[in-house]
Structure prediction request, 313 residues.
Amino acid sequence: MTAIIQIDTLSKQYDSGTRALSDVTLDIHEGEIIALLGPNGAGKTTLISIICGLVVPTGGTVRVGGHDIRTDWRAARRLIGLVPQEIALEPFEKVINCVRFTRGLYGEGQDDAHIEQVLRSLALWDKRDAATRELSGGMKRRVLIAKALAHRPKVLFLDEPTAGVDVALRREMWEVVGQLRREGVTIILTTHYLEEAEEMADRIGVINKGRLLLVKPTSELMGEFGKKTLTVELTAPLTMIPDELAGRNLRLSPDGRSLAYEYDTRAERTGIAHLLGDLAAQGIKVRDVSTRQSSLEEVFMTLVSEPRQEVTA
Ligand SMILES: Nc1ncnc2c1ncn2[C@@H]1O[C@H](COP(=O)(O)OP(=O)(O)OP(=O)(O)O)[C@@H](O)[C@H]1O
Prediction:
């Protein structure tokens, strides 16, 4: 796979002394959606800002489409579109003019055919002559995306695209992002919403305290860290786990009415059949069983509470 962005041992220490990024190395592949996940202050915005040329790194390099962001910044920046977190639009300006104006910032001439295509793909064509203040919150966010796409970037950064928006609007944004991906745009998004990363991203990078803890395909991350728990409800409560079952790694609930058994979903043998057989052999009657997959949220908490070695994929 071709890397459209190559980040190599990138570091940033602000003048205040805060070390916001430490030795981040990551290749972002053309056409993928990668989500950067991390708690407040993890360094996500700093990373995006460096790639977009808004913050100067103190160490390391970034190449976009092969162009170094410092020595060849003009070519690098032309390949990038940034959708900021805050909605900042000229309230009295028409939608179409806002989008046209952005092309000028990149030194690009008029291209109304492209502007029309962008506005149509974001379902904004009918609103092209409306002043931006007349738009709903969702439409305003789409205008920000249209502006970011006006100069035909190959890479789009979305900084917390759905922060503070309702569920319906979040779904709408996900659809827009899915559509952009189908058009071949590489997308890097930051988010606090694990559900969002799981839903949209091909890969997830977890950042904490300026370090990239890991980058994995979303499904692999879920499979690798995702454990399942089998809960066995008992017809009669137990006071303790019988010695015969001691090696089975069972947890008895405080009321003694259920047993929890954690197992690896990828293991060839989960041990469930044996467990149920052993329970029957001990005369322990089972009322019901249920299983639960650990969520990305639990996976994430495990990662940020137990710092791992840097891994890049
Ligand atoms: N201009 C700045 N000057 C000094 N310190 C800064 C500056 N910008 C960010 N920081 C600090 O760098 C660290 C990383 O901040 P950053 O905004 O990159 O994190 P983030 O992961 O984007 O957080 P959030 O999810 O809250 O947006 C934080 O400790 C922050 O206070």
Remarks:
- The chain has a mean pLDDT of 87.
- The longest strand covers residues 3-13.
- The two ends are 11 Å apart (CA to CA).
